[in-house]
Write a structure and sequence with these properties.
With about 130 residues, the protein is an all-alpha fold. It has one domain: TerB-like (Orthogonal Bundle). It is built from seven helices and no strands. Helix 1 runs antiparallel to helix 2 and helix 1 packs across helix 5.
Length: about 130
């Protein structure tokens, strides 16, 4: 099962939520526009028309200081490079949503790349 088809796997979907929320709040802000983007992606990967209450509560209660990125990547359970790069690209887009990339966001994406086993050069190519 691919990372973007998690309709019956809440454990993996919550891991993806953690990874995306971590990206959204890497700059110490998790504003409403970022929450909407993360929620919309979760709706898509869950194959639903609205965000389930469990996920809505998860987004609202997310604490970036408690995120263990390596653990979240492991819970997501990606088994091929294409899926790893795809998740990486989606998360990169989340940090670019406000048209500026803070040092803390770049650091988060670099840590994510390492956790996914993606070469750091790809961080530079996606973030500029």
């Amino acid at each position: 099962m691919h990372w973007n088809q998690l309709s019956e796997d809440n454990t993996r979907a919550l891991a993806l939520a953690d990874i995306m929320c971590g990206a959204a709040c890497a700059d110490s802000q998790f504003d409403e526009s970022e929450r909407i983007i993360v929620g919309a992606m979760l709706i898509k990967v869950l194959g639903v028309t609205s965000l389930p209450a469990e996920f809505e509560a998860h987004l609202l209660g997310f604490d970036g200081d408690r995120l263990n990125l390596v653990d979240a990547v492991a819970r997501l359970g990606l088994d091929n490079d294409r899926d790893k790069k795809s998740v990486f690209k989606v998360v990169s887009e989340i940090v670019k949503v406000d048209d500026k990339i803070e040092k803390s966001e770049r650091s988060y994406v670099t840590r994510l790349a390492k956790a996914l086993g993606i070469h750091v050069a790809e961080v530079k190519s996606l973030l500029g």
